[in-house]
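Q: Hand in one record:
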Amino acid sequence: MNDLKKLKKVKKSAFAKSAATDDLPSQYQLNLAEHGLTREQVIATERQLAKFANAMDSVVRIPFTKQGMGADAALSTIPLAGDVAGLALTSYAFILGRRLGVPVSKMTPAVRLALIDTVVGVVPGIGTLLDIFIRPSRKTLSIVHQHIQDEYGIRDTMHMDRPFLHQSLEDKQRHNRLWRNPIIAWLYLHIPDIIGSIIIILIGWGLWSLGSWLVEVFSRSTGFG
């Protein structure tokens, strides 16, 4: 009798979990419909935001990372006017976030960071240096992605990591299935990282060769070594 009760409880629990799992996709669809959005529109808008964030905060970046510098740091070299312009441009990221249904309360940390960025940027030299690390547009992108992941169930990140190349890859994939191969797609999206790594290696090798040559010249000239 006890075994029968346990079996019923297990079946009931399994059924509840299955029902909850089945409801998730429909709930995501309801959330999308509530804001008049489709999955494709969300990805396209987030990719647009990622393009903007890259332009503002990481046009030039360290290979295989998201750390770099962009227009925001460049604008901060212009006293006051550049920082105000940077703040005005950053507001575009907030507009895109709101377009995707992100509540104002969730955007507050990014807005606060943008204001800090503007105030700090006024300080000559140091402000420009700190602008490289204070990146409100990328913070906005992070908040937006977390929101669409929770609310719309969209967990893809390819369109965020390399938005310009991703759009180009998407166009290629429509016309040729070769580009749908995961390895080829990955290599295409990471072309800048691969080229950047090669350049860094070549610069390192060049500096090492130059250092070795200088040591050799010094040794011959002074008799040391």
DSSP finds eleven helices and two strands in the chain. Residues 4-24 have pLDDT under 50 and may be disordered. Residues 35-156 form one domain.
